[in-house]
Write a structure and sequence with these properties.
Among the domains are: about 50 residues, no CATH class; about 140 residues, no CATH class. The radius of gyration is 28 Å and the shape is globular. The chain has 34 helices and no strands. With about 525 residues, the protein is mostly helical. It starts with 6 loop residues before the first helix and ends with a helix. Helices cover about 50% and strands about 0% of the residues.
């Protein structure tokens, strides 16, 4: 049994997690005396609107920073912190929810624009505006549609970023207009991207030493015959050349016969390999080369190769983030009926797969296909989602957040070997009898879930559990506790009964300079008002 914990701290954390706690209990926890509950309250649960109002206007940046990373609240609510006076809060918003989920809901366009174009990052000077923007760019909160529009945005900074993000997706007319942009930084960015299409410029820029820059150029940008010949002669960077869509065809043919099977496998994956060479690779002595040659039917597209690379792994490791260039849904649909399990895994990873194929993949003989479907598709059958939760511990943080994970009919899992699974079953609100035996479980998470179980309704039992450090936090989170009892626990924990004033934007007559942000909900200012904060 782990060491006993503080009863007051356990009560505060439990009350913060209690799904039946009314707003006046939750708002009361925002008092400085409720600090032990702030992480649970602000970062780990959804919140009523009036509590959100109090959180985004709270004078302590720790409260606002925790809320900025909350994966359970709507992005528009988190986005109200976009003009927060603390740079660390803005950086937390830009960095995205924690834990990091595979598919992150995008922030509203107005919030994205404000973070990407800000000239300063807050009054505390802890981070720079560029660092905040960098966090946002890598957070997964910017949808591709935002970048596709950015090259036409009125703000030159966003146009410059758009040139860097969507240049290869722009049409000839759009590319031709950018070198004449009124902003010199946009023109310079367009000139750099134009230069990237010139093989001679790539040859001139290619570093001789081994480095990331050299690898990038040889993997992605146009290659001259001279550069390809030099690499072949030195047996250097051959995997990069075999991967590069711009490698000259005669060099590709030579790479197809390279002694390194990794190089031949890359050639077998290319979208431009001719039928004769592909047939030769399909008979290669190496299994990986043969598999890749026959896996991808012709005609091929480069985006399809990227999707197979990104989503076709066989080790159960599902990637985080979007496919760099996603093929059409019709191609994923064709993959769903393939004889190759790798392609069916790719199809199961596509969230927009037609519904008529979902049932087919949910019954696939390959467990990886079924688990991919459960982790990615919003219409995956509940039993497939539950099976993935039980079988794939590394995916549980992704499966717990969406509402698709079954929460009832879990009695058969109460004795499961995995404590996370037992904890899920203990929280089943449809249990006919409370999971009393799990109150003595060796795992703290299971004890907490058993004490918080909706099936546990007996007042005397709950009172005893609240006095036991091993179960106090779970008991305080039990939805059967009345609000009166929750307030009593907060009294005992030393949290004052005074209520935080409901946040309301000051009017000009009040003489305050605090104003709601354009991306605010309009119900409360994003930036805490000194007048109101002084009353706390």
């Amino acid at each position: 049994m782990p060491p006993a914990t503080s009863l007051p701290g356990a009560w505060l954390r439990g009350a913060a997690a209690n799904p039946a706690a009314p707003s006046d209990v939750l708002t009361r926890l925002l008092d400085p005396a409720g600090r032990p509950a702030w992480q649970t309250l602000c970062a780990e649960r959804d919140l009523p609107g009036d509590v959100v109002d109090a959180v985004v206007a709270h004078p302590d940046a720790a409260v606002r920073r925790a809320f900025a990373r909350n994966p359970r609240v709507a992005p528009a609510q988190r986005g109200r912190l976009v003009r927060d006076p603390s740079g660390l809060v803005r950086a937390a918003l830009a960095g995205g929810p924690r834990p990091r989920l595979r598919r992150v809901r995008p922030l509203p366009d107005a919030v994205l624009e404000a973070l990407l174009t800000a000239e300063e990052a807050g009054e505390d000077g802890r981070v720079t505006a560029a660092e905040v923007a960098g966090e946002l760019v890598t957070s997964g909160q910017i949808p591709p549609s935002f970048w596709r529009r950015s090259h036409e945005h009125p703000h030159p900074g966003l146009r410059r970023m758009g040139v860097g993000s969507v240049w290869h997706a722009l049409g000839p007319a759009e590319r031709a207009a950018l070198p004449a942009d009124p902003d010199p930084a946009v023109r310079a960015a367009a000139a750099r991207r134009t230069r990237e299409l010139d093989p001679a410029a790539m040859e001139a820029d290619l570093p001789e030493r081994d480095c990331h820059g050299r690898t990038h150029l040889l993997t992605h940008l146009p290659v001259t015959d001279a550069v390809a010949e030099a690499c072949l002669a030195a047996r250097r960077d051959l995997w990069s050349l075999a991967h590069n869509p711009h490698t000259p065809s005669d060099a590709v043919a030579r790479l197809a016969h390279d002694p390194d099977p990794r190089v031949r496998e890359r050639v077998a994956a290319r979208a431009d390999v001719d039928a004769a060479l592909l047939a030769e690779l399909a008979a290669d002595p190496d299994e990986a080369v043969r598999t890749r040659a026959v896996l991808h039917p012709s005609p091929r597209a480069w985006a399809e190769r990227e999707a197979i690379d990104w989503l076709g792994g066989v080790d159960g490791d599902l990637p985080i983030g979007e496919v760099p260039a996603e093929p059409a849904t019709s191609w994923f649909a064709a993959c769903a009926t393939s004889e190759h399990a790798i392609l069916r895994r790719v199809a199961a990873s596509h969230a927009a797969l037609p519904v008529e194929l979902v049932g087919r993949l949910a019954a696939d003989p390959d467990p990886e296909v079924r688990h991919r479907l459960a982790c990615h598709h919003p219409l995956a059958p509940p039993e497939a989602v539950l099976d993935a939760f039980v079988a794939r511990p590394e995916q549980r943080r992704h499966l717990l957040t969406p509402p698709r994970l079954p929460r009832t009919d879990l009695r058969h899992l109460l004795d499961h070997d995995d404590p996370e699974v037992r904890a899920l079953a203990a929280a089943d609100p449809a249990l006919e009898e409370p999971p009393v035996r799990l109150l003595a479980d060796p795992d703290e998470r299971v004890r907490r879930a058993a004490a918080a179980a909706p099936a546990l309704r007996d007042a005397d039992t709950l009172a005893a559990l609240l006095d036991d450090p091993a179960t106090a936090e779970g008991a305080a989170a039990n939805p059967n506790l009345p609000a009166r009892r929750l307030h009593e626990l907060l009294d005992l924990a030393g949290v004052p009964r005074r209520r935080l004033p409901p946040p309301k934007p000051p009017t000009p007559q009040e003489g305050s300079s605090c104003r709601p942000s354009p991306v605010s909900s309009g119900r409360s200012p994003i930036r805490p008002c000194a007048t109101r904060c002084g009353r706390r």
